[in-house]
Amino acid sequence: xxxxxxxxxxxxxxxxxxxxxxxxxxxxxxxxxxxxxxxxxxxxxxxxxxxxxxxxxxxxxxxxxxxxxxxxxxxxxxxxxxxxxxxxxxxxxxxxxxxxxxxxxx
Amino acid sequence: xxxxxxxxxxxxxxxxxxxxxxxxxxxxxxxxxxxxxxxxxxxxxxxxxxxxxxxxxxxxxxxxxxxxxxxxxxxxxxxxxxxxxxxxxxxxxxxxxxxxxxxxxxxxxxxxxxxxxxxxxxxxxxxxxxxxxxxxxxxxxxxxxxxxxxxxxxxxxxxxxxxxxxxxxxxxxxxxxxxxxxxxxxxxxxxxxxxxxxxxxxxxxxxxxxxxxxxxxxxxxxxxxxxxxxxxxxxxxxxxxxxxxxxxxxxxxxxxxxxxxxxxxxxxxxxxxxxxxxxxxxxxxxxxxxxxxxxxxxxxxxxxxxxxxxxxxxxxxxxxxxxxxxxxxxxxxxxxxxxxxxxxxxxxxxxxxxxxxxxxxxxxxxxxxxxxxxxxxx
Lengths: 106, 378
Ligand code: HEM
Ligand code: FES
Description:
heterodimer, A: 106 residues, alpha+beta, Ubiquitin-like (UB roll), five-stranded mixed β-sheet, 3 helices, 21% strand, B: 378 residues, CATH 1.10.630.10, 15 helices, 10 strands, 51% helix, globular, binds protoporphyrin IX containing FE, binds FE2/S2 (inorganic) cluster, iron (chain A), 2Fe-2S_ferredoxin-type (chain A), Beta-grasp_dom_sf (chain A), metal-binding (chain A)
């Protein structure tokens, strides 16, 4: 089963079993992971589902599209090298992804 | 609850409102721009003869058409675009506040003196429309609001029908002009996208303008007015904002929760459905009351309390949710933030005059204060 490990900015970690086809954002929201707001429900309009992907995992993800890249300029905590919007990352069969949530999404 | 006066099923709980927004396959937004009260024969005739064929830019369109147009338009609404506008927005705000503060009788109205023009200038600039025509656009917008969400008699509708015809003709003209001049503006971008092979027609581009020239300012005028109205009515929290401007973003979210510019929005059931345990027949109209959902005690603790440090304020439904989620949300919040920052800096001692007497326009969806009178010490 695919797995996503969320670490909050204070270092607390939650490992969540995920369903293929869902987004990382949906996985977080359904399991009550704090630190992801997802105000627009995944329509790529709010940038409140920002995560920083573990550099070791980053290259294994499909590259982001131009619109996600644009929206990352609107995050509350400035984007980093491996920032993504979690509503745009799809869970695949044997994903084992590690992400950190930023201090704030507002 | 079914409200017979308007023929709508009224949905008020947070979870139910959010679930209806989320399920666009069952609940279509096709009725979002329909006149609440049917248009009179004379208004219909004026609009037909005037070539008025607009209905909706995006909000009342449904997939797959909605998906196609939204994708093209969203590219013109990116954070980097807004940030480029910020210096001009700030300069505008400062000029308006300084003008107000020079008034010898030390009284002002934050709606007329600050909130009214600012977002209109911003959206006209973004679209590439003529910024010297603010009053004309405001007149057209008022007509659009009254004709769609108001309760006008057939007679009262007539001047507004003429305004809508003019408004739509101007949208068509903007597109036609952009084909010739290729301006550096949103209309210019959409026309360029079309010429580069994107699937969007001139009528659709004009409809997007028709939407934005309304959605792009009315609600932001209301947000700025409400933000200052509510903050000044809570002097202790206003003081916190003045002392620590970093709190302003969170304060704007709490204003959107506590007093959203749009208090209710519409959907139509495409099939039989159940909402909050109540059976709703196919074809029924629903009124989603975000103003109520935002004060649902099962989601927000002590919901009647205005509290800028509320941790989950941002979960409000002021901008809707899901595929139609407000495209302009970041632009609206940016303008409100800049307005509050500059008022806090230039006029921290502002006080409301007779706060309880503030009146709101009469309308199904938009709850907008007519005036927010203020005064200050010399
Ligand atoms: C405080 C200010 C604003 C509020 C409260 C607000 C609220 C809303 C709401 C409730 C919706 C419907 C969402 C749904 O059906 O799920 C919406 C849609 C929309 N808003 Fe806003 N809005 C604001 C400002 C703006 C601005 C500044 C713009 C543009 C410059 C804008 C453009 C739009 C557009 C184009 C849609 C339709 C999106 C779609 O159907 O895909 N809004 N807004
Ligand atoms: S949930 Fe809004 S951008 Fe990802």
